[in-house]
Specification:
9 helices; alpha/beta; 187 residues; binds shikimate-3-phosphate; five-stranded parallel beta sheet
Length: 187
């Protein structure tokens, strides 16, 4: 964690969750936003609104690179925006522009899970285009090996999601933000 970087940040208060698909970014993000009284945005939903179709459909029709272009635009818009908690898509860290933009403006938190845990949560998933393969566990291991260093590079701190419940994870995030001086003092 880079406390100095966090404490020097002025407004807006942007809290960004990164991590693999199935790591709990949307669930933790939504509860965190309620706890902090901030709006919540899920970048995948914003992308789908912009596309007018599901991410899976768009991937099939236009391919991954076109999807990453739209994702980059949506993330850049969020990074310019107001106070919020943002859950990003698992591949948001693949482009350096995204890592730099999010880290410069937001407090970026990596929710880390092992490929095996992710597989347990996602083995029946039909919506994530990258996981519609014969061996999703092998795919998750491959994505994790590629992305874990990128999540660490983008994030100010990381949290292990293996055992804790969602409310505990939310508490852990809040505690880290408080320790870093990123949240206003409680009344
Ligand atoms: C992706 C993860 C998805 C979504 C898209 C691509 C990825 O988001 O952005 O299917 O590259 O890992 P989640 O992490 O919310 O599943």
């Amino acid at each position: 964690m880079h406390v100095a970087e966090l404490t020097q940040k002025a407004d807006p208060l942007l809290i960004v969750l990164v991590g693999m698909p199935g790591s709990g970014k949307s669930t933790v993000g939504r509860q965190l936003s309620r706890r902090l009284g901030l709006p919540f945005f899920d970048s995948d939903h914003l992308i789908e609104q912009r596309l007018g179709c599901s991410i899976r459909e768009f991937f099939e029709r236009a391919g991954e690179a076109a999807f990453r272009d739209v994702e980059e635009q949506v993330l850049a818009d969020l990074a310019r925006g107001a106070d919020a908690v943002v859950a990003t898509g698992g591949g948001a860290v693949l482009r350096e522009a995204n890592r730099t933009a999010l880290r410069a403006v937001g407090h970026v938190i990596y929710l880390r899970s092992t490929p095996e845990e992710l597989y347990r949560r996602l083995r029946h998933d039909t919506q994530r285009p990258l996981l519609q393969v014969a061996d999703p566990l092998a795919k998750l291991r491959e994505l994790y090996a590629q992305r874990d260093p990128l999540y660490r590079e983008a994030a100010h701190f990381h949290i292990e999601t293996g055992r804790p419940s969602v409310p505990t994870l939310v508490n852990m995030v809040v505690m880290q933000l408080e320790l870093a001086g990123a949240l206003p003092p409680r009344p």
